[in-house]
Amino acid sequence: MTATDSNTAAPIDTRALEVPGARLVYDVRGDLQDRDPDTPVLLLAGCPMDASGFVALASHFADRPVVTYDPRGTGRSVRTDAPHSTPELHADDLHRLIETLDVGAIDLFGTSGGAVNGLALVSQHPGQVHTLVAHEPPACPLLPDSEQILAVCRDIYDTYQRSGTGPAMAKFIALVSRVGSFPDTYLDEPAPDPAAFGLPTDDDGSRDDALLSQNLLSCTSYRPDFDALTAASTRVIAAAGRESDGQVAARATAEIARRLGVDLTMFPGDHGGFMGAESGMPGDPEAFAAKLREVLDRP
């Protein structure tokens, strides 16, 4: 199915890929066959954010094919397996998607859980990725206060199962926006009010939120395989937003950079600095794209 990107008038070819336990829907902007062979195809991946979060960023790369996709259980990608995910499972989905594209090694921009999944992919299939830009992967086991952070994540999951989206998401927002380490007494503090974030206070009974029910615990518990990443042919860029300094994901990214022996690359904005006005939480996608292009074009 072909549609049009309203930002660029570029045609979007929407396709589907059957994988074990799911049907992945992905979008191709540009011609995969008639392209500059020296410029890798760019794959943009989030998790659990789906392809809709990359509309603005993709519009700034009209010079090369850009692929976006909905991870299993999100957006248009329907899953038929158990409603739980791991970075390794998402990495296998990415592996199968890249294999299906049949364009050689790609460049991968992964953000948040998508960056975690990208690290898992490179550990397993390094030949498929030329450059991985891992933007704020929340790999919490690398941090000195990981025990406290992971306990908070477990509390968010339990809150969701007990009370629904509003109370759990309020706790999640408090988690990801906190600057600095988490004390042992963090869970003794009063829970944030969902209404203060514009979130529902009533429980509608649903328990199918992809973040809160499927990905939160496994994503934040992921410990990268640094031996595999160091040995890989892939160039790994550890990237964090300038406005995210001190937050969990940015702290984890800095630790990844240190352990890989690379510089931490700073990008404009915060955790969602690449997002456009359609997201409701816009960053600066033009400046973000310029930095991403600079990073990808480095020799």
TrEMBL record:
The keyword DNA-binding does not apply. Residues 40-160 form the AB hydrolase-1 domain. Keywords: Hydrolase. The keyword Hydrolase applies. InterPro entries: AB_hydrolase_1, AB_hydrolase_fold, AB_hydrolase_sf. Transmembrane segments: none annotated. One of its GO terms (molecular function) is hydrolase activity. Coiled coil: none annotated. Signal peptide: none annotated. Gene3D superfamilies: alpha/beta hydrolase. PANTHER family: HYDROLASE, PUTATIVE (AFU_ORTHOLOGUE AFUA_2G14860)-RELATED, MONOACYLGLYCEROL LIPASE. This is Alpha/beta hydrolase. It comes from Rhodococcus chondri.
